Amino acid sequence: MAADPHLACERPHGAASARLGDWTDIGTLLVLAAFLGFSFFSGRLGRFLVWPYVWLSPLAALIILAMCAARLVAQLRSSVSCSCQRQSGSPASRLVCAGVFIVPILLALWINPTQFSPEGARKRDVPRPPRDVELQQAINWVLGAKTADNRAASTQVALPESPTILDLLGASEEYLPGQLEGRFVTVVGQCDLPEGAESRRFGLYRLVVTCCIADATAVSVQIARKPGVKLESGGWVRVAGRLKFDNPVDPSLPVIHVAAPISKIPEPSEPYL
Fold first, then answer.
1. What pairing do the DSSP bridges indicate for beta strands 184-192 and 236-244?
2. Which class would CATH give 118-264?
3. Distance between CA atoms of 37 and 27, rounded to whole angstroms?
4. What are the structural domain ranges in the chain?
5. What does pTM read for this prediction?
6. Residues 35, 28 contacting (CB under 8 angstroms)
7. How many Å is the maximal CA-CA distance in the chain?
């Protein structure tokens, strides 16, 4: 006569193993809810997501806590000791799954995503095709769009005194170089020093995040300076100077010629654009 498979589950060892698996699931849910709550209230989640999506974290934490409470109530009320009627999976496999689940959480707590290296930012840089201003003016004249030049000459340049790098690049595409030449601006960004800490020209970059850090792209502008402050690659600085269009690679891109001492600054509270 075949043995009843439920007899093995009625042993104390089988019931204890089943309870261990249930408590492992509850503990995993609690760790996840605590991580989401800590990430939100500490502001760390803002390093991974843009603000419109950050508020989803406390909502998810509340849902997970509700799930955890339901599992806990079911665990306390349950009088069934047969592990066959419990959730599938051995305690060992559920412990392994919990460990695999918690590893990304530990990595997220340890890694600072805002510390992008200049090399990593260069890989995320959006390539911009060179802009031929003279050809563009000729096309506008042929198409009878001379009002574009007249509008460009008469319209006041809408560029703040302290623009972001994204604002600066957008203005260089919208206006003619002559309208921006000589404008005094102050820009904040991270240093890209491909030629060393004392290079005369270097890049200033910022990360642009649409949803999360995974879709980040980099925008940069060239800085021309005199020898002076020794800069650090990836360090945050504030640069003040006048715009010139003498970029050797693309003359349509602005270059900030430093007119005041470069000041090192701490990482801004909102590091992304």
1. antiparallel
2. mainly beta
3. 15
4. 5-110, 118-264
5. 0.64
6. no
7. 99
